[in-house]
Amino acid sequence: MKRKHNHPNKGQKKSVDYKVEEPSELLPFLLKVMANRSRNSVKSILTRGQVTVDDHMETKHNYSLQPGQTVTVLKNKAAVKESQLIGMSILYEDDDIIVINKDAGLLSIATQKEKHRTAHHQLMEHVRLENPQNRVFVVHRLDKDTSGVMLFAKSEKMKRTLQDAWKEKVKERTYVALVEGEVKQQNGYVSSWLRESSTHLMYSNQTKNDGKYAKTHYKVIQANKNFSLLEIQLETGRKNQIRVHMQDLGNPVVGDKKYGSTGNPIGRLGLHAKVLMFTHPKTGKLLRFEAAVPKSFLTKSK
Fold first, then answer.
1. Which side of the chain, N or C, has fewer Cβ within a 10 Å radius?
2. How many domains does the chain have?
């Protein structure tokens, strides 16, 4: 059974947009535009993840806003409705799988600090509306600050089937990365053996078989002196692979302080999972999902 999902902003307006006219921090800006609400009410709207700035979910009170940005607030009634997903939208759902478009700023799965505001928890609630016994399972992860297409399974068996045959099933996995500096070579690749330090930092090693082999192909979409927008194809899917390999290239991902970035002009990590194409394990059909490139990536690299 395939379900159609209506975009939350079609028909009845579930969110309100506010244009930023002058530099400000996020909380003071919200208090000003939502003057009819109490400070605590505005804070909880922010904490619950009901606020997006341009193309990412933002919960930080002191996040710096710049003129020209758009702040979108999901109305309380819409957020309280159980069917309303925060920081994500469902691209496809059937009896076996769910495919989502995840915003930057939303965790894929629970951490020690955050149990509920995650893609996994929200989808769990979503499937349980139909039947309390229903469950969802993470097939692959996206970092909290990476946006884009992500796949979940509706049974342990389906999760295992997808993970065990990931290489054969997945036909295309394309990312886009906004990186620092001008990448001179129009296309190329980076390969290395990746290892993890005691502080959980991944790093490249050129010694053969010393770590997990990783290969990343890239192509320049557009670039200027300060930034380049790259299309990236993964030959292997290792932890933080793109981020490490862009650092190796000398062009770290924008906003990626962990791996060599010097600034963050877009207020988020410059990494987005654009395309996921795979063969459905049950039906054998080839499915392709695409999440539009964030506007800030395009404007910075023009």
1. N
2. 3
- Please name the residue that has the structure tokens 């996206």: 142
What are the angstrom distances between the C-alpha of 98 and each of 103, 209, 265?
16, 36, 33
Count of residues for the chain?
302
Instruction: Specify whether 195 is located in the same domain as 237.
Output: yes
Pair of tokens at residue 22: 């002058």
3-state SS assignment for residue 255 = coil
Catalytic residue, chosen from 96, 103, 143, 248, is 143
Catalytic annotation present for 54: no
User: CB-hemisphere CA count at 13 Å for 124?
Assistant: 13
pTM of the model: 0.78
Tens-level pLDDT at each residue, the chain (302 residues)? 445 444 444 445 678 999 999 999 999 999 999 998 999 999 989 988 889 998 788 989 999 999 999 999 987 755 555 457 889 999 999 999 999 999 999 999 888 877 778 999 999 988 988 888 999 999 998 989 999 999 999 999 999 999 999 989 999 999 999 999 999 899 999 999 999 999 989 999 888 888 999 999 999 999 999 999 999 998 888 889 999 999 999 999 999 999 999 989 998 999 999 999 999 999 999 999 999 999 999 999 99
75 lies in the same domain as 138: no
235 in Cβ contact with 192 (< 8 Å) = no
In a domain, 281, yes or no: no
Out of 83, 108, 132, pick the residue that ends a domain: 83
Please check whether residues 91 and 137 belong to one and the same domain.
yes
**Residue 109 phi, psi dihedral angles, 5° rounding:** -135, 170
The answer as to whether 1 is a domain residue is no
- The CATH number of whichever domain residue 154 belongs to comes to 3.30.2350.10
Q: Which two tokens stand for residue 237?
A: 């899917």
